[in-house]
Amino acid sequence: MPKSIETTKLRSNLAAAIREVNERNDFLVVTKKGEPVAGIIDLDTLEDIEASRSKAFIKSIKEARSQIKRGEFYTHEEVFGDI
After folding, report:
1. With 0-12 CB in 10 A as exposed, 13-18 as middle and 19+ as buried, what is 33?
2. Would you say residue 21 has pLDDT above 80?
């Protein structure tokens, strides 16, 4: 279950809430009178969400999956050898 914070508590503890989200690479659900109304997420997660909405990104994932099915990939050993 994600952590949540009431708007009144968030108002007086915004810096701490942002710090917690960033340190945990997670998110907080903001509630008002017990009902969820918004969310606070770390920037890396937001960038991942934005990328996943990109048509070019989705196309590249589909192409990568097709390449894997066709055997067009390098193994860990081929790339890194005996590291």
Report:
1. exposed
2. yes
Which CATH number is 35's domain given?
Answer: 3.40.1620.10
CB 37 within 8 A of CB 7: yes
For the chain, the domain total comes to 2
Please report the pLDDT score of residue 26 as a whole number.
85
d(CA 64, CA 55): 14
Instruction: Burial-class residue 67 by CB neighbours within 10 Å (0-12, 13-18, 19+).
Output: exposed
- The mean pLDDT of the chain is 92
